[in-house]
């Protein structure tokens, strides 16, 4: 009886999570996408933080040589183990086990690249409470190259200024506008960041404008001296998701700011935070230094529905960046090329 009660309780927790986070019961006629959806729901019910990780994986895969699943590789014939996962700019990537589980379910019916973008789409849908949804087709192939140095050279850095961000997004193989840069930056309403990625914002000598209360709360929670001790702790990207004690120290009141206090939701709260100088990264704040970008920050702060729609469109474009490599395949195992599958 105790075991039965525990099972019922667990089921209730899962259903409560899904009811609170998404339009529960979304189904796809495509069997692969339906299996992906079910596994993403299971994974997020067990560990809600994996949702943000799955959304992040889409950008970190597709930005390097297109959507080819290269960020999932542990080893390649040409790069050895010095793969994209080990790039400095890929610190904290997660969600790989979810992709592995899905691959076991669908087998050769889908590439790892397809699974990754489908999972990111479903995570965004769930995290937004069903307000961000977009259709995706399959047909992507998996790459056989994955380089940490290429990832660090291609991914935008958290310390970029506006011109560097603009050039990075507009570069060949990307082709994203300033508006899309601002749109995709809104994904920083979820997830976490490592101290090493925002350390420049805590030292007065290097800090771009940041709210003093927010900066003080960060310095108290994650003092810079921790890096010298080999520690690199994380904090939520969004102060909305921080503890009550942190919010009090940071003088952050989501309700007063016009932000829903619901934690972990993918929404337009990033724009409210940015316009109050309560964002972690320099690359977030510098959007305020360009007239057009700053105008879009205000626009998305004031119109959540518009941002939801524009974010969905930008994710469709991101998920459609074509793989640029040669010898593309459908991997048997998402962590290894087929050449290495048996080794």
Automatic annotation (TrEMBL):
It comes from the Eukaryota. Its cofactor is heme b; Ca(2+). Keywords: Calcium, Disulfide bond, Heme, Hydrogen peroxide, Iron, Metal-binding, Oxidoreductase, Peroxidase, Secreted, Signal. Ca(2+) 1 binds at residues 61, 66, 68, 70, 84. One of its GO terms (cellular component) is extracellular region. Residues 1-24 form the signal peptide. InterPro entries: Haem_peroxidase (IPR002016), Haem_peroxidase_sf (IPR010255), Peroxidase_pln (IPR000823), Peroxidases_AS (IPR019794), Peroxidases_heam-ligand_BS (IPR019793). Pfam families: peroxidase. Heme b binds at residue 188. SUPFAM superfamilies: Heme-dependent peroxidases. One of its GO terms (molecular function) is heme binding. PANTHER family: PEROXIDASE 25-RELATED. Belongs to the peroxidase family. Classical plant (class III) peroxidase subfamily. Belongs to the peroxidase family. Ascorbate peroxidase subfamily. This is Peroxidase.
